[in-house]
Design brief:
alpha/beta, single chain
Length: about 250
């Protein structure tokens, strides 16, 4: 059985239960403005929540996804069969050609299990970007105070015949936590695990700099609200250093 550090682990475990997440309209609008003539690449393209509406705008979009099961879910959706997707580790950016835009949404960069693999991702994205291209990531701002002595338990839902809880174990030194979403019901027990290696915006900026990229814009959300010390998430746009300083 694969473990947390396997590129396919999250998708293979979650594919049959994966929700679409937030409405992608604002993200799609933001990304479409940066796409230019394309082509565009989504890392961790999942079930196509953002990829498919971008492609529906006539933008040439490809994907990289660690889990074949997630890709199959996308193939079942309208337009999903037309999107070229490479199954592989997103940190390696295992595709040919160059892109006007590469993006990672919904905290997915943090699914990479270590600082080393996150740095690899930045370096490989830089290799795949056009000289004036953009790398866009959406991440939460870490809040270690949510954990009490390295752990946390939260009740998500309680009904007459089921209860769903989340159990976390936090390693502050590794900047990493493992989480199980556990549902107890009359049908039995379902467990959906995930592990994240989080980092602060300043660390991401350093990784980008080491890869020859530079922060160009940062916002609190897809609607471009200003990012400040109270922001709980960020949208960061990186460009090749030469382009960012023009």
């Amino acid at each position: 059985m694969s473990g947390f550090d396997d590129a396919a682990f999250f998708g293979d475990r979650w594919a049959d239960h994966y929700g679409d997440g937030p409405d992608p309209a604002a993200a799609v609008g933001f990304l479409a403005e940066l796409a230019g003539a394309g082509p565009v690449l989504e890392l961790a393209s999942g079930t196509g929540r953002v990829t498919l509406p971008l492609a529906a705008r006539g933008i040439a979009v490809a994907g990289v996804e660690g889990s074949a099961a997630m890709v199959e879910r996308m193939r079942e959706r309208p337009g999903g069969k037309r999107i070229p997707v490479t199954v592989g580790d997103m940190a390696d950016v295992p595709v040919e050609g160059s892109f006007s835009l590469v993006f990672l949404v919904f905290n997915t960069l943090f699914n990479l299990p270590s600082q080393e693999r996150q740095r690899d991702c930045f370096h490989n994205v830089a290799r795949a970007l056009q000289p004036d291209g953009a790398f866009v990531i959406e991440c939460f701002v870490p809040d270690p105070a949510k954990f009490d002595r390295g752990s946390r338990v939260e009740a998500l839902e309680v009904t007459e015949d089921s209860a769903t809880i989340q159990v976390y174990r936090h390693d502050a030194v590794a900047q990493r936590y493992a989480k199980q979403t556990i549902t107890f019901s009359t049908d039995g027990i379902r467990m959906l695990p995930v592990a994240l290696r989080y980092c602060w915006p300043s660390e991401l900026d350093l990784m980008a700099s080491q890869a020859g990229l530079q922060l160009h814009e940062r916002y609190a959300d897809w609607d471009r609200r200003p990012f400040d010390s109270d922001s709980t998430s960020h949208i960061s746009v990186y460009r090749p250093a030469a382009a960012a300083t023009r």
